[in-house]
Every structure is written in C-alpha cells, then in structure tokens.
C-alpha cells in the first residue's frame, strides 16, 4: 500500500470518487466490505466511503462533484479501480482461449497494447465489457467489472478447463493488485472537451509505474486509454 500511495503523491494527480448512482451508503447491518490498498489514503483525504460490489470505495472527497468533474476535464485525475477483477491468462494457447470468449482480434495486439472488448455468450449476447492487454511478460492481462466478478471468473475458468481437457497449454491466475485508472481521454495532450467521440475502438498502451522498460512516476503512468 505504501508504494501505491507514494506513486499517487509523486505523480501529483488528484484521486477522484465514483459516481453516486453506482454506490450505496455504508451501515452496520451490511456485509463486511473489502478494502483496496488505498483505503487509508481515501480516508486521510476526506473520502466519503460507500458500498459498491462488495467493496468500500469513495463516492466523494472534500470537493464538490462539479469541481471534481471540471478538474478531470480540464486536467486529469486518478481513480482507484483496485476492486475490479484482474486476471492473468497464461500458456501458449492464451490467445485462443481469449478469442473464444470475446469479440476482437487479440492476436494482433502489440506487446503492452490493450483493447476494450466484450464477453459474449454462445448466441452472441453481451455478458460484460473488459480490457485485454497483451503484456510483454508472456501473458494476457484482463480487467473486467467487479459487479460481474463471479460470472466473469466462472466463464474464464470453465473455458480454461475445457481447453486443458483438449490438451491445450493454458492457465488462469487471479491477481490482487492495486490498480489506478488515469482519466481524462485527452490526458496525454492536456485534456479534452466533454462529448468527444472516437470512431475507432479504444486502444492503449499499458505499463506498471517504475517497472523495467515501462514509464516511471513523472513519465507516462499506468494504463492510458486513447
């Protein structure tokens, strides 16, 4: 946790809260909620914690929602998304597995390039959205929604077992890492105006702050989706 907090401080970004419509206030009668590695950081900066998908997350800081929104649009902000389901897809048949579950050409991704995609059922119906990154470390890094954690994980685990029974080289590992998302869409160029739209499917470069060959704090940090 200390590393995550120090990265935020050195980058000089402002952490933002989740939209209130997605959350509900905490109460003593509710279930025990999980905490992200930045939980104490949120409290120290006046975060109002609420329940979301089994996690305790900030819905608002000391600033108003309007001020937070304008800051993000005019500059950029970091969001704690450590509650999201993070998985590694391993093995030489990892691309085959992922392309059997999502729409999109995963095989064409360059090292450390990611793409927004969709989990679909056998009839082509949408189950959830996700981001798939082809890492330079020999695995696919998948991030999907906390609200669909059990469903998405079961979908991937079932496909792993199916392919393993066919003799395929594939595996899955669930990660428990801190994860920060950098927003605004124009963060790399000084901000964007509301309502911007893009005709192409979102693509981005991903990296871990300070890791070998990746941006360090003060450079281009963490995943940036364009």
TrEMBL record:
Catalytic activity of the protein: N(6)-[(R)-S(8)-aminomethyldihydrolipoyl]-L-lysyl-[protein] + (6S)-5,6,7,8-tetrahydrofolate = N(6)-[(R)-dihydrolipoyl]-L-lysyl-[protein] + (6R)-5,10-methylene-5,6,7,8-tetrahydrofolate + NH4(+)
A GO term for molecular function: transaminase activity
Top-level lineage group: Eukaryota
Transmembrane segments: none
EC class: transferase
InterPro entries, per database record: GcvT/YgfZ/DmdA, GCVT_N, TrmE/GcvT-like
Region entry Disordered, spans: 186-226
Keywords noted in UniProt: Aminotransferase, Transferase
Pfam families: GCV_T
All copies of domain GCVT N-terminal, residue ranges: 38-179
EC assignment: 2.1.2.10
Oligomeric form and interacting partners: The glycine cleavage system is composed of four proteins: P, T, L and H.
Record family assignment: Belongs to the GcvT family.
Name this protein carries in UniProt: Aminomethyltransferase, mitochondrial
